[in-house]
């Protein structure tokens, strides 16, 4: 039984010419030739750049709050970083400084080269990336185009029609993002587009015949029915941050990529507060060895589309849209007219592999990690700790009718107090059973046997 996890994202930046002509523009400044990755890709360098990408992603996530129209957020910090880094190749003076500042790259040596090598390294895994530099016919950007191609694999192409752009995006995302753009902005001369596609298989697979309808608690009073995937005695690495009131679990994929799930306890804050405190590197340090647990993970398919202009402006990049210095791309005034981001994410089981198990029994003798409340996720490269994708899920089934439910906070708070809890040897202790607190909340209502 293969559980396939898809992330599809497209990031598009449009450069809009205000006045002046574009012509061939050569630079005798820094030579961005092809990179020897053996010289720059140490583990320390990987994690430094991975940490920078994570900081950018978390800062962006803070600006993009879930709402009634889009209750779930899916972004690719790597995609945004690649696009801004490519734009920085064409920037000068304050514009370049601001871009590197937002990229958290000002203190990182060989940032462009390391990010380029990480991009190349990830494509050897289950991550597929494509980048394209669209230019209107008759215009040339030889130096910038060469640097973008050498460092970030941005293939040059003529910008002939919106249909051609949408066709390339659709092909690059295996048909999961269609009609990405409805029209071309007036006077556009250059478009930077990159796509990231991920399709992975869990190291420990879920069995589709144990997927059942279950409750997902949107908030204290509202719930929705979702298809909940079940894993009996699932090998899971997780920890509880008592200070921040969160549970954190790691679901590894084959190929050294992991899904991290962070679930705040209702009485201890919300998703935004939890996101502000996230540190992916620290999470990896706190993960313990895997142990058998009952796992409940919602099955869903979500879409997200957003213009990032407002979010990037609030992060300090407003000058991109008003009067940037992009003179390494071409002489004359240029400005970015829009930053479009679209993502699609799917969790589902596929396949028909025989299994010896005939039932799943949820009992309290084995700890349970039940993802049945709003959560934060990050799809992370295990080597560099770089988040490929990041998001918040407040409703995995936004098209379904919501229901009124009991307030889970009361039960959560009761679990946080000392109680008699069975240890592995069958004895009892008086300490809070933190690893099992959310399973106790919901198993008290939803104990069941699937056969």
Automatic annotation (TrEMBL):
Residues of the Serpin domain: 58-396
Region listing for Disordered, in residue ranges: 397-430
Family: Belongs to the serpin family.
Bias-annotated ranges (Polar residues): 411-430
Keyword Nuclease part of the UniProt annotation: no
Signal sequence range: 1-20
InterPro entries on file: Serpin_dom, Serpin_fam, Serpin_sf, Serpin_sf_1, Serpin_sf_2
Taxonomic lineage of the native organism: Eukaryota, Metazoa, Chordata, Craniata, Vertebrata
Gene: LOC107599232
Keyword Disulfide bond in record: no
Superkingdom of origin: Eukaryota
SMART domains, per the entry: SERPIN
Keywords, sorted A to Z: Signal
An example Gene Ontology molecular-function term: serine-type endopeptidase inhibitor activity
Name recorded for this polypeptide: Alpha-2-antiplasmin-like
One GO cellular component term: extracellular space
């Amino acid at each position: 039984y293969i559980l396939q996890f898809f992330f599809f994202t497209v990031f598009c930046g449009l450069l809009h010419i205000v006045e002046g002509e574009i012509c061939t523009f050569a630079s005798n400044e820094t030579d961005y030739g092809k990179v020897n990755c053996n010289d720059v890709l140490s583990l320390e360098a990987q994690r430094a750049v991975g940490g920078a990408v994570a900081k950018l992603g978390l800062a962006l996530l803070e600006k993009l709050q879930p709402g009634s129209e889009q209750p779930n957020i899916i972004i690719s910090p790597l995609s945004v970083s690649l696009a801004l880094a490519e734009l920085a190749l064409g920037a000068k003076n304050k514009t370049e400084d601001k871009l590197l500042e937002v990229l958290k790259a000002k203190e990182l040596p060989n940032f462009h080269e390391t990010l380029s090598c990480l991009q190349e390294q990830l494509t050897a895994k289950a991550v597929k990336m494509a980048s394209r530099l669209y230019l209107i016919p008759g215009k040339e950007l030889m130096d910038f185009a060469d640097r973008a191609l050498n460092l970030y694999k941005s293939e040059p192409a003529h910008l002939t029609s919106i249909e051609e752009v949408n066709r390339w995006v659709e092909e690059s995302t295996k048909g999961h993002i269609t009609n990405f753009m409805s029209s071309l902005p007036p006077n556009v001369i250059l478009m930077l587009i990159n796509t990231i596609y991920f399709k992975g298989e869990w190291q420990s697979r879920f069995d589709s015949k144990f997927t059942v309808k279950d409750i997902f608690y949107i908030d204290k009073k509202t719930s929705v029915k979702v298809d909940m995937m079940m894993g009996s005695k699932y090998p899971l690495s997780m920890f509880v941050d008592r200070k921040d009131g969160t549970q954190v679990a790691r679901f590894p994929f084959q190929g050294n990529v992991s899904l991290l799930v962070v679930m705040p306890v209702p009485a201890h804050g919300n998703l935004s507060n939890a996101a502000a405190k996230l540190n992916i590197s620290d999470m990896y340090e706190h993960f313990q060895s895997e142990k058998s647990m009952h796992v409940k993970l919602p099955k869903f398919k979500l879409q997200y589309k957003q213009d990032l202009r407002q979010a990037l402006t609030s992060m300090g990049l407003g000058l991109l849209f008003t009067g940037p210095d992009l003179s390494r791309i071409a002489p004359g005034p240029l400005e970015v007219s829009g930053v479009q981001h679209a993502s699609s994410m799917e969790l589902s089981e596929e396949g028909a592999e025989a299994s010896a198990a005939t039932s799943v029994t949820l009992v309290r003798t084995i700890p349970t990690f039940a993802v049945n409340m709003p959560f934060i996720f990050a799809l992370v490269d295990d080597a560099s700790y770089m988040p490929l994708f990041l998001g918040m899920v407040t409703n995995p089934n936004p098209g379904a009718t919501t229901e009124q439910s009991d307030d889970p906070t009361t039960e959560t708070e009761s679990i946080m107090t000392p109680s008699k809890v069975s240890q592995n040897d069958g004895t009892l202790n008086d300490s809070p059973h933190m690893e099992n607190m959310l399973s106790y909340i919901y198993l008290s209502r939803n104990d069941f046997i699937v056969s």
